[in-house]
Amino acid sequence: MPIAEIISVGTELLFGEIVDSNAAFLARELGARGLTLHHKSVVGDNLGRLQAAIERALDRADLLILGGGLGPTDDDLTREAIAAALNETPQVDGAQLTHLRGLFEARGRAMPDTNRKQAWLIPSAEALPNPVGTAPGWFVRTTWNGQPRLIVALPGPPREMRRMWTEQVLPRLPRPTTALEHVTVHTHGIGESLIAERLGHLTRQANPSVATYARLTGVDVRVAASAPTPDEARALLAPVLDEVRGLLREWTWGEDDQTLAGTVQDALAGRTLGVIEAGSAGVLCTLLADQPGFLDAAVTQDHRRLITLGLTPVTLQGDGLVSEAGARELAAGAREHLGADLGLAVVVCTSGEGAGRAHVALSDGARVAVAGVNWPGDPAQLRERAAVAALALAARTLPGWTA
Fold first, then answer.
1. Which of 310, 257, 267, 311 is nearest to 288 (CA)?
2. Of the spans 90-104, 107-121, 357-371, which averages the highest pLDDT?
3. Which family does it belong to (predicted)?
């Protein structure tokens, strides 16, 4: 299976001033196409260090992708580093220079002389057009220690990089010699170590592979298989995937591109949902914002307002707002007072004696489902976990509640 490597270029990435979303995108793209990614690295704007990183990558990878460093300034050094590693001399390409000048003239500006370097090419490089920016990419076909190698240089801005990758790079990449099939199972309510214990030997085998990843919405389990053809890969994947699904059925809420909010929307089956949040700062509403079944919401910690929404003074004085009883009453109130078919409530305590506790409840008028969260520490993290717990409760419960 071909091996790939990614080098993200830029001191701003190295120091954390910009989040490297490009490398994450490219890693997913490579995996989806049967390429094995062994290394990802970030290198600052230093010619010597970048050249050394390129040379190390070419020793071990069939495909090297560099992101960033294609601008016109002195600290944009990706072209220079590739040329130095391959011992080739860059020259201004006339067609690229004409294109760049045309871009500036179309905007009523004269092209600065510093932009000439963006028209550079080395003999082994092919220019990759950039329809939404001034920095062309490079597609380099070369050999290294007698082995064929591909080098792709992409611009740093994500909008430019993703379009160039899709339109220019993918058509030029050789078709993979192996097929990779994978499915990601989404779970909630069970920890990563418990999943690994439950899956047992499955997580220790190589092909198909079974790996766990902690996410905000729970733990993902990725099952992947590779084989010479897609049909063979699917046949290899199927029995292991079925076993994983069976072992984790109790905690599973979706697979692959499904989102937790989208799963709740599907489970509503045409019904509407009202939400009351107390102490979670509207995090649940934000997660539900794009779902058409989300009818209305109230976000408040004011006790007088909450009493008008269904919280009883008896519960407030006895159990307190952040209690199972409080969540139950507000879930019923979300349905009744917001005019929805179903009510979902979350109550969160981020300070004081009960800090770290939250309760969520779902009501359809006749039935109530509840869940609790205990996560002392960062208030923002507690709010997120409480909102996710509310969605997970709805995703697990609603399929069994017919309209």
1. 267
2. 357-371
3. Belongs to the CinA family.
